[in-house]
Amino acid sequence: MFFRNRWPSQTANRVFSFCDRLFSANLIARIGVASAIVFCTVAVDLRADDGVPDTAETQQQASTGRPDIVVFLSDDHTVTDSSVYGSTEIQTPNMQRLADVGMTFDRAYVASPSCAPSRAALLTGISPARNGAERNHARPAADLKKLPAYLQELGYEVAAFGKVGHYRQTPEYGFDVAKFFNYHEDQCVDEAVKWLRARQSDKPLCLFVGTNWPHVPWPEGETFLIDDVRVPPHHVNTKETREARQRYLQAVQTMDDELGAVYDATMDALGTETLFIHTSDHGAQWPFAKWNLYEEGIRTPLIVSWPGKIQGGVRTDAMVSWVDLLPTMVAAAGGDPDAAAPVKLDGRSIMPVLSGQADTHRDVILTTHSGDGNMNVYPARAVTGKRYKYIRNLYPQFQFGTHIDKKPADTGYWPSWEAKAGDDTDAANVVRRYQQRAAEELYDLQEDPLELLNLARDPEHHSQLARLSTRLDQWMTDQGDQPDSVGLAKLLPPSGQPPNVIMVFIDDMGWADLSCFGGIEGQTPNIDRLASEGIRLTNFYVNSPICSPSRTALTTGHYPARHRITSYLASRELNAERGVADWLDEEAVTLPRLLQQAGYACGHFGKWHMGGQRDVGDAPMISKYGFVRSLTNFEGLGPRVLPLKDAYDGKPPKPHALGSDKLGKGPIMWEDRSVITSRFVAETLDFVREVSQGDETPPFYVNVWPDDVHSPYFPPAGRRGDQEKRTLYLSVLKTMDEQLGVLFDRVRNDPKLAKNTLIFVASDNGHEPGAGAGGPLRGFKGKLYEGGIRSPLIVWGPGMIRPEAAGTVNEATIASAIDLVPSILQATGVSAPESYQPDGEDLLSALLGYNHAQRNTPLMWRRPPDHPGNRQQPYPDLAIRDKNWKLLCNIDGSAVELYDLANDIGETKNMADKRPQITQRLKDQLLQWNESLPADGVVTVPRGQQEKRFGKRRWK
């Protein structure tokens, strides 16, 4: 180190590093001090003569003081898990070595506690709401100026090795060199050191090295003994926790070793006058760290050394943010960050603190968290002052969850926490604290550093709460921060009386028949009013284009083929011929049975069609599936009302029973078909009145499944008009709407029911040709094109849906009938047995208007065996929808069609040839799914024979 500061140029520094190594090899002992000095002096001259001259640019760098800058970023490191920050559990000697020659910040904070938004804030100097990278994996706006551009304008070469941006986003920031940035490649440090030692450029350098440690998965190691591991007091002490912490500490040790390697290489290659920064993007993957706005999530290590500019071994409690690092580095490089910024930066240079000219920097730190796709959906904002912290959880209705509990294999400890919580009060409190958050949290960081005592409701701290809340409001306004929930959130179970649920499932109604879904001929004011007070989902599907399988999916949460019901249930002979069951298995897990077992009173009023039709008189009664009361029509057993038709113009009424009157199994009543929905509604209201009597009334679940708009159509005599099919259909639709309006008004006008009742309205499949309407959709009932499987969905519940969402349309969420089962279970707080594995996903947060959550997996369909189409117009066997893409094909993979529904809702432009990769991926997934299901006539009967054997029985 003897000569290093005599010659400031980068060329000389390389020579001096060479001389230093000679000295460390006992050169002095061999040739004496004087000879060693002469040797190194000659070496300087020789190196200068060998093509590495002190250029004018290098001399200018020295004279203007542009330092080389090296930033070592760690990944997911909780600040207190290092000896520099007080840990006695682990020694981090290289962090300490840097602290000894630099300044250690005790109150440094990231802008967000997840990788992508944190790093985007660092590299733009702008907070997440303004830079666009608000949730994990998001990117900052492409037109924003990034840190490399600022430094390149000042003559710097800017390089990145490892995770600097969020993995593969790294090159998008404009680095001159960007390498080894994939997930846990774990070679960036060695490669960065190798590159740095070989570098020949005389440009000043800014080098980022981003290790993946201590990000999960944590490595096995023998450095830490399990008996020496200390579980933090706010965690759950289990064997699995201790083992996980042992691995985590090993990962921290690895990170510290890599820091040392980069620091040593920097000193060798660039010299001691280098500005060296070490920090981490946020806390580790523990329940109250990463993804959280608690101190363990957002407070970060920050150590800065710059010999000659920063006094070594100094600590500061100045509050600084990661957005401050960009202007700090630009200022250190001789630039003016504010003048160079095209838009106003949120960061401010901390050079006054580093130089000792200031003891403070910010009076508060403002941080945001917006989530991580479906893995963490919990938007929150926080303002941290010198003593108090205020956190605002924007959706306290959500259950907090992260990779920790959703992907427990990454860390291995969470299941042991839940298990211990079953019989340990302290553990249960920790788990509850993790999953359930108050709308507002206030902590005294001085007295309560672990943030365990929420003071938000403490009258003595009201002034602090109000002050920080106002500060947060103003900041969010200034930032244009309009937080929304993105992802598949899980709502907390109801804390009071579980909600009532009414499921209105209309038979054969087209997607565009309702006025509120664009219908211009039909009149449905009662359903329209429900929609105006609730939420409409335009990307909702049923799971079959025909009735029985569609109803099976809604009842079980499974694709109907799993229950061997893939077409309408008919006679035993026809069922066997098509390869379908005679009824839904009595042992199947059903939504009403799960609700009944949890204390719900369940009733079914309307069409059933999952057993007990035609000549199938030995099917289970409807009550066997979880209902305590039922009234159905000719396609179910138990009490039923059968239709009389043609009773007008003096004609005698004709029974329309399809053999049901001969099956027995329940009392039979007869009604004119035009008033049967009125009968179903009356029975529903009587059931609700019955179960609602008394002081302790159970919640209820009711199916109201009218079949009016299924052919044949029989409106009241005065509405038959010209008796054309379309006319009759619209008249039946109008009449049904009026009859359902009685039910809707009863619930709406009862404050108790209105506050705690959810109503769903949908159709079981698409319209029949010539009757209903699908608007722009291709196809109709029986087909897998949109007109056959897309259904309107209305969700109503003024006491449950997000108030701001009332009257809105959700055009983004892609959902289906199978998703209603887990969603309703979540809404009611009812748990299913572990053996029950639904195909549906919990989309309750989207259904209630809190976000536009999406399924994790695509939706898939198999057509009914008796709907093959014909030779001129064959119908596809299978379909899959994944985001905007929909693919259809036959079971052998032929006749592939691919549509971009976002731009082609009518399925008119087949993109299969233009998007071969998407086509192959979706087709492989669809064929694999189909092969996993029980076979039916689509699989066992040749297509040519299907048309002959099944094709004439279309509209049953």
Automatic annotation (TrEMBL):
UniProt keyword Chloroplast present: no
GO MF term set: arylsulfatase activity; metal ion binding
Protein keywords: Calcium, Hydrolase, Metal-binding
Domain Sulfatase N-terminal: 67-334, 499-830
EC category: hydrolase
One Pfam family per UniProt: Sulfatase
EC number: 3.1.6.1
Residue runs in coiled coils: none
CDD domains on file: SGSH
Domain of life: Bacteria
Family stated for the protein in its record: Belongs to the sulfatase family.
Stated name of the protein: Arylsulfatase
